Amino acid sequence: MKKIIVADHYGVCMGVKRAISMTEETSQQDKNVTIFREIVHNEAIVEKFRSEGVGQTNIIDSIDGGTVIIPAHGASPDIFKRAEAKKLNVVDATCPLVIRIHKIIRKLADSGYYILHYGDSAHDETVGIIGHAPERVKVIESISDLDKIESLPDKVALTAQTTAGIANFDEVEQYAIKKFPQIEVFNTICNATTQRQAAITKLAPNVDIMLVVGSKSSANSNRLAQISQSLCKRAYLIDSAREIDPKWFEDKSQPVDVVGLSAGASTPDFLIEGVIEKLNRFSKSPVELIYPKKKSKENELALKNSTF
Ligand code: SF4
User: Which of the following is catalytic: 43, 84, 125, 288?
Assistant: First the structure.
């Protein structure tokens, strides 16, 4: 192995960093803290808080007093109401870019729009979004879901999960506009997602093996893995260095000179560093490590420019 090239945009995003530090601060000050669902979709982070004694539950009504933390993916208004009814202290770690979608959905619903939301119906973020206007939001997971709709009202909008695939959303958007010309499109995919997908699209075709560090539960890590698998014959999603299979590097008919590396928006830096260390151990000679030149301010910029 001669080189490891790290994608221009990779790893932990502003919303995830913020949720982790809010949880750290809260749990240092308060010993009775429970996280509602997973604070972020990364097994190492979930395990870290669990091992530090922070509680976790999927059922808000099961929390008996103390503080509840709402995760980066947000929750529906009903969850906040139930927490209030139980007199829980609520720390809201919802990513500001998820809150932005909540506001868009509410504004559209209040203005009489029917909303098609492109996303995974079972994802925590989608469940939270639907909760803002359950009677006015329909989740679309694919073009075939659009096919099943015969007609829509005049006021109709299309939105997307923050971590949706850019190319997939483009296809859905084009199809929706063709079938329902009145549709108004709000591209709510966040900048962290857009930039990580663009960076991996650029890198994956030019490497021998592409590694994406992220948990199987992470929607955006899965999306990065899917994109890289379509562009690079040997592309793998790994939760940590432990999941690197030495056999990937042993096939003499397919020598590995260049490894590409990326990571989902919920993957902490220490997991990426662990992967780099392990890759270095495989190599008999020094490996050149190429990092992107500068870190982007993508999310901060997106928030500043937001009109919601
Ligand atoms: S992926 Fe985007 S929406 Fe999700 S937490 Fe990160 S910045 Fe926020």
Answer: 125
For the chain, domains (ranges, CATH) are: 3-12+191-290 (3.40.1010.20), 14-95 (3.40.50.11270), 97-189 (3.40.1010.20)
Per-residue burial over 26-39, b = 16 or more CB atoms within 10 Å of its CB, e = otherwise: bbeeeebbbbbbbb
**Residue nearest to ligand 1 atom 2, measured at CA:** 190
Probe target for ligand 1 pocket from 10, 12, 13, 126, with the most ligand atoms within 8 Å of CB: 13
Stated pTM of the model:
0.93
Mutate which of 9, 20, 94, 97 for ligand 1? The one with the most ligand atoms within 8 Å of its CB, which is 97
Determine whether 52 is an active site residue. no
* Burial of 49 per CB tally in 10 Å (0-12, 13-18, 19+): buried
Which tens digit of pLDDT belongs to each residue from 82-139?
Answer: 999 999 999 999 999 999 999 999 999 999 999 999 999 999 999 999 999 999 999 9
Q: How confident is the model at residue 293 (pLDDT cuts 50, 70, 90)?
A: confident
Question: Which positions ≥6 away from 144 have C-beta within 8 Å?
Answer: none
pLDDT of residue 295: 55
Both tokens of residue 223? Answer: 């999306």
Kindly state if the Cβ of 218 falls inside 6 Å of ligand 1: no
Confidence of residue 296 (pLDDT cuts 50, 70, 90): low
